[in-house]
Specification:
The complex is a heterodimer of chains A (about 270) and B (about 260). Chain A is mostly helical and about 270 residues long. Chain A has eight helices and no strands. A six-stranded mixed β-sheet of chain B has the order 6-7-8-3-9-10, with helices on both faces. In chain B, strands 2-1-4-5 form a four-stranded antiparallel β-sheet, with helices on one face. In chain B, strand 4 and strand 5 form a beta hairpin. Classes of the chains: A mainly alpha (about 270), B alpha/beta (about 260).
Chain lengths: ~270, ~260
């Protein structure tokens, strides 16, 4: 049975001092590791929770859609606008679509999507599971014969892992639209020409890398949100902590993963 | 409603606990529990706050694991069986939580359906609806079917929580403080409900409470948890016929003021 000590993320030793915090830090890393292992052990054994996964995918999409649309568009627009003067000094305005497309596809779309999803989706998963933990809803589920880890955690992690790459694709599209608005205003480029220029510099690797990156981001956001909520400590304070912890940790990890993946991908160029 | 005495066969045990110990950090909560729950009886567990009553029933349902001792439920040792067996066993045990633990994101109907839909694979829509209406009717809250838990009062939540466990026709019921924080009339209703469940569903129950009226009206036997052990077990009169300073205040506070 693995239900032991599920209620608190860390022990009860003296809650101060550098040594204690360092201990908690490594204990947390170890527990996240176990959490991930458990996810892979339980998520891919039948019976599958298809219906719940789809419902969660929908939730993830709905929660972040508006903000991603607005942000993606503005990022594309502003990036194009701000890049124009630099290119203009070399008389290279015609390169603008290529520059925008590389920036958006390689870096901005996955990153912007992941950061917004950390804020919107990660925090709400943390808060939701956190409040289910402190009000014993998770225990209630367990004693009524449903495995809460599988039903609550696996479905949410799968949902973010599937949905965030889709959202990132959408963000890229919206971002390019923002870029196009700016380009068409100044240069009067047609949409078809703009799109041709956009896809010209992109290689297969760019798409694969973006896809891998956003899949990893999605998995991270799901795991971190669920971990924080699932192990949130007793009391309503724990719920706030879980939500906040989910955002901070997810964003931090997303940046680290971004750096690592870029390094790896660049070896293949 | 006066308690109708139920004929109990003292050979037929549904829960058998021996030498059960459980500590948190260095605090020994349960220090050697022995307990039998007989088929068809209501056993009331009394004890001060923090003596480990909730811990005891969480151990019984496998939510916590003991440090030592055996817990046999319906012939199976919950500490030794596989995950799958434990899951099957849990369906036969109803657990009514101290704070109801209703699923906040679901309506009353969805709350009640959840255990059914999850555990009975081939059940039809009509069967689900009938079952939901039957248990809602049993707890007298048919009108709340489409409400969210947040819109219910504490007493209503408690009763929906009980209804949710009844829907799987459990053989054993574990009630954690069913009357805590409720007005006297609602308390009486809940006590009647517990007795009705005992008779209608033929369940054996453990009822945790601080409320001696509840203990007296629902309990066939009373067990008093003192210093991590059951030190007094028997009928209501047997348990309280004592000058033990740890027991008397319960009685005095409830009946003499
Ligand atoms: N998961 C846990 N982790 C650490 N300590 C716990 C845990 N659960 C219970 N305890 C401790 O065990 C003791 C008994 O708790 P329990 O909830 O069983 O009390 P109780 O008898 O139900 O009290 P009440 O009547 O107030 O509900 C308490 O001191 C509590 O701090
Ligand atoms: Mg309790």
């Amino acid at each position: 049975m693995d239900t032991v000590n599920e209620t608190s993320a860390s022990g009860n030793a003296k809650r101060s001092g550098f040594k204690y915090r360092l201990g908690v830090f490594f204990a947390d890393i170890y527990k996240i590791h176990l959490f991930i292992v458990r996810f892979f052990k339980e998520a891919f054994v039948p019976p599958f929770e298809f219906k719940e996964v789809i419902r969660q995918c929908y939730e993830v999409g709905v929660r972040s859609f508006t903000l991603i649309t607005v942000t993606g568009f503005i990022v594309g627009l502003i990036f194009t606008k701000q890049s124009r003067p630099s290119l203009a000094t070399f008389g290279a305005n015609s390169w603008l679509p290529s520059l925008v497309s590389i920036a958006i596809m390689r870096a901005l779309a996955p990153l912007v999507t992941a950061l917004i999803a950390s804020g919107k989706v990660g925090s709400s998963i943390g808060a939701e599971l956190g409040s289910m933990r402190v009000t014993e809803q998770i225990d209630a589920m367990e004693v009524s014969g449903t495995k809460p880890f599988k039903f609550l955690v696996c479905t949410r992690v799968l949902a973010t892992t599937i949905t965030i790459p889709l959202l990132a694709t959408y963000t890229a599209f919206i971002g390019l639209l923002g870029g196009y608005l700016n380009v068409s205003m100044y240069e009067g480029t047609s949409y078809t020409t703009f799109m041709q220029q956009v896809f010209q510099p992109l290689v297969y690797l760019d798409f694969t890398a973006a896809l891998i990156k956003s899949t990893v981001f999605g998995f991270t956001i799901g795991i971190v949100g669920c971990y924080q909520g699932y192990y949130s400590t007793k009391g309503t304070e724990g719920v706030g902590k879980a939500a906040n912890g989910a955002v901070v940790t997810a964003m931090f990890l997303v940046f680290i993963e971004e750096i690592v993946i870029v390094q790896i991908v660049n070896n293949f160029r | 409603m006066e308690k109708q005495k139920v004929q109990i066969d003292h050979k037929d045990t549904v829960i058998k606990i021996r030498g059960l110990k459980k500590s948190f950090e260095d605090y020994a909560v349960l220090r050697g529990i022995d307990l039998d729950l007989y088929q068809g009886e209501n056993l009331v567990v009394l004890g001060r706050s923090g003596t480990g009553k909730s811990v005891l029933i969480k151990l019984i349902s496998g939510l916590l694991t003991p440090d030592r001792g055996t817990i046999e439920v319906l012939g199976k040792d919950v500490t030794k069986i596989s995950d799958k067996e434990l899951q099957e066993l849990r369906i036969r045990i109803g657990f009514s939580f101290q704070n109801s633990a209703l699923y906040d994101s679901m309506t009353v109907r969805k709350n009640l359906e959840f255990p059914l839909v999850r555990n009975r694979k081939n059940i039809t829509r009509a069967e689900i609806d009938t079952a939901v209406e039957t248990v809602l009717d049993a707890v007298g809250l048919s009108q709340t079917i489409n409400q969210m838990p947040a819109e219910l009062s504490g007493g209503q939540r408690k009763r929906i929580g009980i209804a949710r466990t009844l829907i799987l026709n459990p053989e054993i019921m574990l009630y954690d403080e069913p009357t805590a924080g409720l007005d006297p009339i609602t308390c009486i209703e809940i006590n009647d409900l517990i007795n009705e469940v005992q008779q209608r569903y033929k369940t054996s129950s453990i009822i945790i409470t601080h409320d001696l009226t509840c203990a007296k009206t629902t309990g066939d036997r009373i067990a008093m948890l003192l210093d991590g052990q059951f030190q007094r077990i028997g009928t209501f009169e047997e348990v309280f016929n004592t000058n033990d300073e740890r027991v008397k205040p319960f009685f005095d506070y409830n009946f003499i003021q």
